[in-house]
Amino acid sequence: MKPALKMTIDNAQDTAAQPWHGKGMLSHPALTILGRFLILVGLLLFWQWASGSILPKFWFSSPSAVFEVLRGWVLDGSLWHHLGATLLAMSIGYIAGSTVGIVSGFLLGLAPYSARIAAPFVTALYSLPKIALAPLFVILFGIGLESKIMLVAVTVFFLLLYNTLDGIKDVDPDLAEALEVMGATRGEVIRKILVPGTLPWIFAGLRIAVRYAFTATILGELIASNSGIGFLIDYSAGQFDAAGVFAAIFILVVVSVFLTEVLTRLEASALRWKN
Amino acid sequence: MSDSKIELHSASKHFTAHGKQIAALQPVSLAVGQEDFVALVGPSGCGKSTVLNLMAGLLRPSSGHITYDGRELNGANRAVGYMTQKDTLLPWRTVADNIGIALELRARYVSRKERDDRVAQMISLVGLSGFEHHYPGELSGGMRKRVALARSLIYEPETLLMDEPFGALDAQLKLVLHDELLRLTRQRQMTVVFVTHDLGEAIALADRVVVFSGRPGRVKVIKDIPLGRDRDVFRIRFTDTFCRLHEILWEELKDEVRKGTDA
What residues of A are in contact with residue B84 (Cβ under 8 Å)? Predict the structure, then answer.
């Protein structure tokens, strides 16, 4: 079986190296965008047609109904209110959690002995699914902003803590030695070797953490809240308003694509030396 | 030897790997005088690099001790410039920023302006003009070596430790850099310990050649090279003295090299 599998992989690589379709009209960038646009329009048209004919409209809604809901939210300002609430909870939790995570990562990374003492506790908390803490945070901090902030911060904290620790371990100790021989103090070795050497890991952690922060915020809002996109989903679902649920999910998609795009660009410009 | 810069007093080194002790260096006694240019040659695995690491204070001897300027070494030796075999360039810094890094440190701080001037000087010295703003990942192995050389020369340490610095370079460039190295180290009265496996290179550059025996390393023979300080590295290989020294030392080295390849 194994050789056969390998053959398949090799063939796949060959195919990738020499595209069988050659450079036809299909490879033009503008046509790529047009193709994507057509697929999107096709899907929406199918959805519009299908709902009410082959799918029950009550459960599946339709693009036009979803659009109406979105328009209503924009016009009465509730979109901005809820989006604002979600983004506020998410960003405060994200900034607080990642800052504390990075700082703790450096503190533990630079004090290997304390790190070894703390390791089992940190691991135990890390392996705990953070969402299980959500009800606790609701009891402690209420259903408002604070409980979401805490949930996001705790989630993000561990991601950044571990990425920073791994990053520090990944820095070549020979680089630090080279600088020491030149006469660098410990502080200078940290500033000029350890921190920049760990940055790629921290950036990777920050990027992954955005998704987690977003998910944690929405989950927190779904569990108990009085505003936010998660609240909109939960509220609409409670009213059996399928169009409202889809509209809120649509907002989520737009926001998460936007966030990922911004972070990818930031990372690319900060780590030019990687390529 | 009161004017010795670096002294090894029966310094040995062994490592522990998988519970077994592996001797890297048998007790070695060696004195490097002020402004000496000493070349260490020997087969691979003979502990030449270990000797440099001991002199740089990055390794502690398992027995014996090492003095620098008469004082026992304790921790990294900040009086030396150390060009390791593996270049330790910082991948996130450009060529120019890598070369100038020593001058950013508080211990060797100079103004931004002076640093830029000296970096520019070093860059043209090692023939890297036009690559100032490249990252190490974009350079060939030979170019990276030249950056590492410039980085250790720029702060004019009184002693240079070099571990096969020119191994990856082509023959012509190697000669040019040999010439520069001799000129600079003479002019700045530097002490140099130079590790190489190329006997010709050792004789062409050094005042003294130390031949190491194969694993575990120990000093086999030490030979003065009476070729003078104002030698011309471009022609020296054609002189009789060079050929005779090469023959004598090769006799010492060839058994070790053979032993090394058998092992």
Answer: 174, 178
Residue pair A52/A61 in contact by the 8 Å Cβ criterion: no
Q: Which residue has the tokens 């023979």?
A: B221
pLDDT value for B3: 74
What distances in angstroms separate CA A155 from CA A104, A160, A262, A264, one per listed residue? 14, 9, 21, 21
The residues spanned by each domain of chain A are 74-274
Cβ pair A212, A221 in contact under 8 A: no
Note the pLDDT tens digit of each residue in A163-180. 999 999 999 999 998 999
Classify domain A74-274 at the CATH topology level: MetI-like fold (1.10.3720)
CA B263 to chain centre: 26
Q: Which two tokens stand for residue B42?
A: 């020997």
Minimal-distance CA residue of chain B relative to A188: B105
Q: Is B105 on the interface with A (CB under 8 A)?
A: yes
What is the per-residue pLDDT for A14? 44
Contact at 8 Å (CB) between A244 and A79?
Answer: no
Q: What confidence category does residue B252 fall into, taking pLDDT thresholds of 50, 70 and 90? A: confident
pLDDT-based confidence at residue B263 (cuts at 50, 70, 90): very low
Q: From the CB of residue A197, how many other CB atoms can be counted at a distance below 10 Å?
A: 19
pTM above 0.80, yes or no: no
Tokens of B168: 């990856």
Residue type for position A142:
G
Output the CA–CA distances (angstroms, integers) from residue A176 to A184, A189, A193, A265, in the order listed. Answer: 9, 6, 6, 30
Strand-pair partners of B39: B194, B209
Q: Is A182 on the interface with B (CB under 8 A)?
A: yes
